[in-house]
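Appendix C reproduces, verbatim, an entry submitted by the partner laboratory led by Prof. M.T., so that reviewers can inspect both the input and the predicted structure.
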Amino acid sequence: MQVELTVNGKSVSADVAPNTLLSGFIREHLLLTGTHRGCDTAQCGACTVLADGQAIKSCNVLVAQMQGADVTTIEGLASADGTLHPMQAAFKECHGLQCGFCTPGMIMSAVDLLQQNPDASEEEIRSQLEGNLCRCTGYQNIVKAVQTAQKEMATA
């Protein structure tokens, strides 16, 4: 079947099998490997992307369901000149990652959270990130990174 959508600001069309997951399409057809596939059951959050501005777990959605959608992956957050998005910069600055496997999904979920709730409390940040599993950091620096980005995004 033919699908057409926008990914990271670029129009994309492709012939895909009807059972193609969005995560597979992003990684295998578009070769954007920042969207990680961890569990393929929507449990870990490593595959989180923004679809029409909202965080979704791309391993739980068929690409056919995204017909006409605007999808942003971790690769699409930075500016064209390479300037990191404030959330990406905060994760780097605050050491909000170790192995990096969960990082793209964490960042995408955190961006969605602050777009919806710019004044999110620490409790709300922790609650929003519950669907993203990290086995390395213990979340302290991840929460710190989101709070740092929150300040930066508020002034932008």
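The chain has two domains: 2-74, 86-155. Additional entries are available on request from the coordinating office.
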